[in-house]
Design a protein that fits this description.
mainly alpha, two-stranded antiparallel sheet, 11% strand
Length: 73
């Protein structure tokens, strides 16, 4: 369920989550947009927050500048 491959590239699942986060969303809203199970969204958000790709405030998450760079790269 990793979001970042061994070579540093993003998984398809991580790309879906990051694309959904152009506007701040809750985990449940991300689930609705991506169609991924909520447990996977929550795990992905924890991993990507630790990697600096997303930032959480209260119950909302948004993509960081680092996340945008990685998404485009």
């Amino acid at each position: 369920m990793a979001c970042i491959n061994a070579d540093g590239s993003l998984t398809a699942s991580a790309r879906k989550v990051l694309r959904a986060l152009e506007n701040p969303l809750t985990a449940a809203e991300i689930r609705d947009v991506t169609g991924q199970p909520l447990f996977r969204i929550r795990a992905s958000l924890r991993e990507m927050e630790g990697a600096g790709l997303v930032a959480g405030a209260e119950d909302f998450y948004k993509i960081t500048d680092e996340g945008r760079e990685r998404l485009q790269g």
